[in-house]
Amino acid sequence: METELSRKLGIEHAIFGFTPFPAVAAAITRAGGFGVLGAVRYTAPDDLARDLDWLQEHAGGKPYGLDVVMPAKKAEAPGNRTLTEADVEAMIPEGHRRFVEETLAKHGVPAFPEGEASGWRITGWMEQVARSQLDVAFDYPIKLLANALGSPPPDVVARAHDHGVLVAALAGSAKHARRHAEAGIDIVVAQGYEAGGHTGEIASMVLTPEAVDAVSPLPVLAAGGIGSGEQIAAGLALGAQGVWLGSIWLTTAEADLHSRALTEKLLAAGSGDTVRSRALSGKPARQLRTEWTDAWDDPNGPGALPMPLQGLLVADAVSRIQKYEVEPLLGTPVGQIVGRMNSERSVQQVFDDLTRGFERAVDRINRIAGRRAS
Amino acid sequence: METELSRKLGIEHAIFGFTPFPAVAAAITRAGGFGVLGAVRYTAPDDLARDLDWLQEHAGGKPYGLDVVMPAKKAEAPGNRTLTEADVEAMIPEGHRRFVEETLAKHGVPAFPEGEASGWRITGWMEQVARSQLDVAFDYPIKLLANALGSPPPDVVARAHDHGVLVAALAGSAKHARRHAEAGIDIVVAQGYEAGGHTGEIASMVLTPEAVDAVSPLPVLAAGGIGSGEQIAAGLALGAQGVWLGSIWLTTAEADLHSRALTEKLLAAGSGDTVRSRALSGKPARQLRTEWTDAWDDPNGPGALPMPLQGLLVADAVSRIQKYEVEPLLGTPVGQIVGRMNSERSVQQVFDDLTRGFERAVDRINRIAGRRAS
Questions:
Q1: Measured between CA atoms, how close is A224 to chain B, in angstroms?
Q2: Are residues B25 and B168 in the same domain?
Q3: CA geometry: angle at B135 spanning B134 and B141, to 5°?
Q4: pLDDT of residue B137
Q5: Does residue A189 share a domain with residue A103?
Q6: I want to staple B222 with a disulfide (CB 3.0 to 4.6 A). Which of A144, B103, B138, B235 is the partner?
């Protein structure tokens, strides 16, 4: 599965795998794809360095990348100071904090034991956190830097290019894609409505060719709704130079969701069991629909706060729900292809299924087109 | 573009075109596809007969079909009577009627002149109307009967099969597709979230292969988000035996929207300018987003009534908006591909673009797969 972009990056298959797990990223890269490690959950630069050390050691000398969540617009506190976590905490209304506790109490979610710190906090989308991640990342031979929210700031693009690192940015519309191209990025990831995580309203079938037309000759990766080789063939038929898969890896043997109950929930879920909700971060993100997302999406509730307030507001709560595996509230970002994630496979098995499915789809298309192919 | 299904129907290309316009249906069939005339707007059986006469005369001896909107469940009035239009009218709350008039007044929409009857009323989704359409349709050599809402009743399936007519039904989920298969239908039209008209929440990229797996070996047509040859290739790569296109014909030279302003609006609209709204019929249907849909989707408004009440409630209003071309309110069902409907072409030109784009996509996929094809 070779395109101009895959040749440029020196990978065998134009399959890009986004994952928060270093073991999954390494396995994707070893299998001939391009593993992209999601950095949003790393708060401490040392933790990211440790995992990049590991990834570098286990990638078999093949290329990989990093995905950060850097807002294009700087969030500013009064007096033009860069917004700190404390500033954001101070902006959260008391009523919303009460709603969090009431919702947890209704489902009997225990508090953290006395003295135990909270779990992770998603602060990676605060600019200073993302920048400290980059300070670490450029010490490693990453080949791609992807930004999940908007175009990266110009100095970041320049710094990446100085290091010989290609820059990708996610786009939910042709307009976003054009803005990225103007910002000097190298690859547009066109992320359709059906994708897990932050996503817009245009479905991949429509978005992919629109993005291709908008930024050509810049390469576009098709993202959203892709978890099989047939779906890869569809994305490539739409003009993409590769595909970007995130959800499919969540139920692989190498993934570590820290919750067996959550893995089981993913394996059991159908394609109709996700929702685009602001519950997670304050921006619409597709995730498993749970009583937690229902509470935030309820028109009679207080509703989610804007980014980055919502992420900080719910950080502890989400950690508690995960630690105690409170089933009705337990969720994760995932796309509509969750309906086909019905068995646990190794990353290599997923990869083999993808490439075989792709070949089958090519055979099928050739038969329909009346072509003989060899 | 040949599949088992296209061979069975004796058509050159596995492209099914749904349209409310006989001239478009005939041109699709003549071009080598399969034209399907939408019957929902016909209230009088004689009008349908007149247009089927015309279609038969202009289809060049090639096959075509009819699309009805027949609810699987009979709507019943008290005392087990079949629900009449008068029954439905009586169920509409006065507040909703006031809201219609207020919204029209706010935009200065004139009333019909004294003595002039209202325009069309969409009553085709009332069972007795759909059945009277079938009484007409089976007098013509239609080759396909499609149902847009649920499985057709068993006696209708049996009657179609007695006439040698294949039965298709639209499905927005694998569950719907399975239900159709159990009802004995012959073809499932898997209609994704991005489609115009009544549609569910699962995007085509995910829905198509799910429907294929759910009903195989029954053939599936991919619908939703398809308006180019590349999108056709994608739909076929996903396992469909053909594609079902509706929106793309709306701006063809043969289409008659009765409003130049509406045609201009479609030509100018982007893929983000549609909305899944209950404004039209009471069930979520994708259409141009207008101040009319905004009014019905406003959480502070009365909200749309359930089907079939909403359709009757707004019938006159929609006719008035169209007659007087009140631009901010003027809309039509259309899918997200409206973003690529930027020029008026003849049906034959659209068809040529589709088949050329398909061949390009096949070339591209073969290059990526490293195949030589001839």
A1: 8
A2: yes
A3: 75
A4: 95
A5: no
A6: B235
